[in-house]
Amino acid sequence: MDLTERPRRLRANEGLRSMVMETRVSKNALVYPLFIREGQGIVEDIPSLDGQKRCTPDKLPFLLEEPVSAGVRSILLFGLPDHKDETGSSAWDENGPVQRAVREAKRAFPELTVITDVCLCEYTSHGHCGVIKDGIVQNDETLPLLAKTALSHVRSGADIVAPSDMMDGRVGAIRSALDSEGFEQRAIMSYAVKYASAFYGPFRDAAGSAPAFGDRKGYQMDPHNAKEALREARLDTEEGADILIVKPALPYLDILYRVASDSLLPVAAYSVSGEYAMLRAAAKAGLLDEPRVVSEATISIFRAGARILITYYAPQLARWIDEGRLDR
């Protein structure tokens, strides 16, 4: 028997091709990132992220109508406060933009899984992810502030908290704080593997979180390193993380594969703002077929081992899944 005939037969028959397809994408696996600003009654375009919008907490239910109707079941919230200071004290304000947005989202869509980003960079006057002394981020002094922030989000109704700061020990500090207040069932989705990447530019513009001096290479990961990703993921697992994030996605598919192969926890990939902006700009210029190229990129992320995808394309992908575009 000529074994070379079998792959051709499977590809030639549409029904068989779909039946034996190795990688499938579910709407349940999509997470939609959203930016929440202070104020009331505002929905505004984000110039650096074409097609994306910022809103005030009261407008979040309006902004969620389309993605929820498309089948998006999970969102990730980032806050943009009016007040910034050296310690980022607005991050744990019970009436801050994220805290209010969580309550609004849960009121309007109780079935929605609400994830909150836990970091200080959007809230500090210097734009770094922790307390600064003599120009250096103070890891241990930052941990209690991150724990306070996570607690304020969970008290507001967040289902999952996602620490993105990359401070050593923050997962353990947050887990301890949540457990001590009876929130043992709330999950931690840790940015376990977060590289010091140039692909974050549009996000930093959208969130107003660019550092006022220096960079974040002292606490985010070196793009040259791969084994370090496994060490970081294992440490967060030991501290109590429930889900691990690899960020960015497309430039780090090899890292995603390694982490997913090494870990027993579900692994999420964050297709970051720069990835979205590149594909969006190329599509708008008529250089790429947007549904096809985004679908292909998405499949590559899941093929590399992701179980969850955080993406600005979540609403479109949900519709394209219904249309069968990701199965073609």
TrEMBL record:
GO terms for molecular function: porphobilinogen synthase activity; zinc ion binding. GO terms for cellular component: cytosol. 5-aminolevulinate 1 binds at residues 204, 216. Mg(2+) binds at residue 232. The keyword Lyase applies. Pathway: Porphyrin-containing compound metabolism; protoporphyrin-IX biosynthesis; coproporphyrinogen-III from 5-aminolevulinate: step 1/4. It catalyses: 2 5-aminolevulinate = porphobilinogen + 2 H2O + H(+). Its EC number is 4.2.1.24. GO terms for biological process: protoporphyrinogen IX biosynthetic process. Zn(2+) binds at residues 119, 121, 129. InterPro entries: ALAD, ALAD_AS, Aldolase_TIM. 5-aminolevulinate 2 binds at residues 273, 312. The keyword Zinc applies. Keywords: Heme biosynthesis, Lyase, Magnesium, Metal-binding, Porphyrin biosynthesis, Zinc. The active site is at 194 (schiff-base intermediate with substrate), 247 (schiff-base intermediate with substrate). Belongs to the ALAD family. Homooctamer. This is Delta-aminolevulinic acid dehydratase.
